[in-house]
Amino acid sequence: MTEVVPEISIVIPAFNEEETLAELHRALSETMPTIATSWEYVFVDDGSTDNTRLVIRKLSERDPHVRGVLFSRNFGHEAAIEAGIRNANGQAVVLMDADLQDSPDALPRLVAAWRNGADVAYAVRTDRKEGALLRAAFSFYYRFASNTMSIDLPRDAGPFSLMSRRVVDAVNAMNEHGRYFPGLRAFVGFNQVAIPVERNERLAGVTKYSLEKRVAGAIGAIFAFSKLPLRIATIVGAACALLATIVGLFLIASALNGAQVERGWTSLMLAIFFMGGLQLMVLGVIGEYVGKVFDETRARPNFIVEEHIGERGAGH
User: Fold this and answer.
1) 264: domain range?
2) 120 and 191 in contact (C-beta within 8 Å)?
3) Same domain, 202 and 234
4) Are residues 115 and 211 in the same domain?
5) Using DSSP, how many helices (H) and how many strands (E) does the chain show?
6) Do residues 217 and 243 share a domain?
7) What integer is the mean pLDDT of 172-192?
8) What is the pLDDT of residues 126-181, one digit of tens each?
9) 304: phi then psi, degrees, rounded to nearest 5
10) Which residues lie below 8 Å from residue 5, measured CB to CB, with a gap of 6+?
11) By the 8 A CB rule, do 237 and 48 touch?
12) pLDDT grade, residue 185 (50/70/90)?
């Protein structure tokens, strides 16, 4: 039997979202018939500890459009995104959060952009509902990242987006472990357009991404697409070596002018400054190579699937 290829796949990573999935499915079920001839929902359960996977099972029993990818444990949001995209069959693939902060009301505009020739239509958040401090942190991060990364990373654009099949195939062809989806999406290029979208508040519950996870993700993204941290180490090392030289010349000049200096202090300080700077400089240079090798040699899977729910090509 020939597998039916849906026009649009909706990929939805979920971690402990039992309170939101039914309402999200209801909202999508109202929207999708108006914008697509065929579609599928790919829910990815990222090792939830609540009833998220049970909700996915029930949705799949009621709606043949629903498929589920259940992880063996929690592997993280980026792994769930990767698994969803790799399991999506659509001619276009939409990625959105499960908490309804990414509103289904924006889907018609994303799909319209795709039909008008865009390979990527990404949502740019025009009005965030977080506190002032967190909004300022997001703003600083996007501006810092755009100025340091080796890619043109759109500001205020998260994962919420639509991608054509050729963009999805290009992203799936990348097997690196430390993935940052907005960066990979920007890296592949093609015709990308921004769609202004207002960011909603969560429908229920609290965010599953703690400050620690947000900071770790931001740092990981910088390391994935920028050599700046390694170059900073090299610059700091060179600055320390220069400082050691200046201090050494000053101490030598002081000694020649008859200043009383503790016996052995000059040579000790000079050695500490010089060797410390030299070590940092050498580590920075070595790190450039180690980082590249490390990125290419990691071969562990980013996720392990315990179970698939639903059938490919069903419900079209």
Assistant:
1) 228-252+260-297
2) yes
3) no
4) yes
5) 10, 8
6) no
7) 81
8) 665 555 565 566 566 666 656 666 566 666 667 888 999 999 999 888 877 777 77
9) -130, 125
10) 89, 90, 91, 313
11) no
12) confident
284 phi and psi, to 5 degrees?
-65, -45
Query: 39: which strand partners?
Result: 8
CA dist 120 and 78 (Å) reads 19
In contact, 79 and 11? CB cutoff 8 Å: no
Indicate the burial class of 152 (C-beta count within 10 angstroms; 0-12, 13-18, 19 or more).
exposed
* Same domain membership, residue 130 and residue 95: yes
Please report, for the domain that includes residue 170, its CATH number: 3.90.550.10
Query: How wide is the angle at C-alpha 163 spanned by C-alphas 299 and 301, nearest 5°?
Result: 15
> What is the maximal distance between C-alpha atoms in the chain?
95
What tens digit of pLDDT does each residue of 205-245 get? Answer: 555 555 555 565 555 555 566 666 666 666 776 777 777 77
How far is Cα 58 from Cα 55, in angstroms, rounded to an integer? 5
Is 92 in contact with 110 (CB distance < 8 Å)?
no
User: 56: which residues sit within 8 A by CB, 6+ positions away?
Assistant: 14, 21, 43, 45, 66, 68, 70, 309
* Per-residue pLDDT tens digits for 102-112: 888 888 999 99
Q: How many residues does the chain have?
A: 316
